[in-house]
Automatic annotation (TrEMBL):
<dbReference type="Pfam" id="PF00505">
    <property type="entry name" value="HMG_box"/>
</dbReference>
<comment type="function">
    <text>Binds to the mitochondrial light strand promoter and functions in mitochondrial transcription regulation. Component of the mitochondrial transcription initiation complex, composed at least of TFB2M, TFAM and POLRMT that is required for basal transcription of mitochondrial DNA. In this complex, TFAM recruits POLRMT to a specific promoter whereas TFB2M induces structural changes in POLRMT to enable promoter opening and trapping of the DNA non-template strand. Required for accurate and efficient promoter recognition by the mitochondrial RNA polymerase.</text>
</comment>
<keyword id="KW-0496">Mitochondrion</keyword>
<keyword id="KW-0732">Signal</keyword>
<dbReference type="GO" id="GO:0003677">
    <property type="term" value="F:DNA binding"/>
</dbReference>
<dbReference type="GO" id="GO:0006357">
    <property type="term" value="P:regulation of transcription by RNA polymerase II"/>
</dbReference>
<feature type="DNA-binding region" description="HMG box">
    <location>
        <begin position="50"/>
        <end position="118"/>
    </location>
</feature>
<feature type="domain" description="HMG box">
    <location>
        <begin position="50"/>
        <end position="118"/>
    </location>
</feature>
<dbReference type="InterPro" id="IPR009071">
    <property type="entry name" value="HMG_box_dom"/>
</dbReference>
<dbReference type="InterPro" id="IPR036910">
    <property type="entry name" value="HMG_box_dom_sf"/>
</dbReference>
<dbReference type="GO" id="GO:0005634">
    <property type="term" value="C:nucleus"/>
</dbReference>
<keyword id="KW-0010">Activator</keyword>
<keyword id="KW-1135">Mitochondrion nucleoid</keyword>
<protein>
    <recommendedName>
        <fullName>Transcription factor A, mitochondrial</fullName>
    </recommendedName>
</protein>
<feature type="signal peptide">
    <location>
        <begin position="1"/>
        <end position="18"/>
    </location>
</feature>
<comment type="subunit">
    <text>Monomer; binds DNA as a monomer. Homodimer. Component of the mitochondrial transcription initiation complex, composed at least of TFB2M, TFAM and POLRMT. In this complex TFAM recruits POLRMT to the promoter whereas TFB2M induces structural changes in POLRMT to enable promoter opening and trapping of the DNA non-template strand. Upon metabolic stress, forms a complex composed of FOXO3, SIRT3, TFAM and POLRMT. Interacts with TFB1M and TFB2M. Interacts with CLPX; this enhances DNA-binding.</text>
</comment>
<keyword id="KW-0238">DNA-binding</keyword>
Length: 244
């Protein structure tokens, strides 16, 4: 099982305080039915289309992450994810079944609601709705992916010499709009001598080394938590070629 593939669904829970999150949680498990899917009245627009219910593991993760976060405020999310995954693996089948039954019940309600909505639409409305939903899903998928990578602590990409120069000079610039500032900074960059640009080129090279080292460490960590899908293609290829 790919670990925490839907980790972004727990992001909203992190906004609560530790005291609120752990209030009344005397045992390590709380009732998963607090996440039960409640059907609503939907119109024929994509905005009102029901969301897929959370899987049993994601329900468990969403419940446990804020508790672990409150107990370990200084820990990285990737470390907490690893602990939650271990706790899930050690969970007795009888306790897992509670989450699995809740998911099956929610999935049945989800399918019934989808069928109810589609029965009220004309064929042309269904086609238009499917296109709209697809577009929204693609945008949401990109946003979710970005949030997930941020949550998992993926290192920031290295900056170019030009970007480093802009960041430095933009902070110093005080007058004019952002567009005017960028135009001025761009002209200043063009007027730099080769030796002056070399300073920023060296900083960019240093940033590449930083990125390489951080990415290597981060990808090793992702391997540990079962997220091979987040590795760079070149790394995936190397792992297939190199003997274990």
């Amino acid at each position: 099982m790919a670990l925490f593939r839907c980790v972004w669904s727990v992001l909203s829970a992190l906004g609560k305080s530790g005291s609120d999150l752990c209030a009344g949680c005397g045992s390590r498990l709380r009732s998963p039915f607090s996440f039960a899917y409640v059907p609503r009245c939907f119109s024929s627009t994509a905005n009102s289309y029901p969301k897929k219910p959370l899987t049993s593991y994601v329900r468990f993760s969403k419940e446990q992450l804020p508790i672990f976060k409150a107990q370990n405020p200084a820990a990285k999310n990737s470390e907490l994810i690893r602990k939650i995954a271990q706790l899930w693996r050690e969970l007795p089948d009888s306790e897992k079944k509670i989450y699995e039954d809740a998911y099956r019940a929610d999935w049945q309600a989800y399918k019934e609601e989808i069928n109810r909505i589609q029965e009220q639409l004309t064929p042309s409305q269904i086609v238009s709705l499917e296109k709209e939903i697809q577009q929204k899903r693609l945008k949401k998928k990109a946003l979710i992916k970005k949030r997930e990578l941020t949550m998992l602590g993926k290192p920031k990409r290295p900056r170019s010499a030009y970007n480093i120069f802009i960041a430095e000079r933009f902070q110093e610039a005080k007058d004019g709009t952002s567009q005017v500032k960028l135009k001025t900074i761009n002209e200043n960059w063009k007027n730099l001598s080769s030796s002056q640009k070399q300073v920023y080129i060296q900083l960019a090279n240093d940033d590449k080394i930083r990125y390489y080292n951080e990415m290597k460490s981060w990808e090793e960590q992702m391997m540990e938590v079962g997220r091979k899908d987040l590795l760079r293609r070149t790394v995936k290829h190397q792992r297939k070629v190199d003997p274990e």
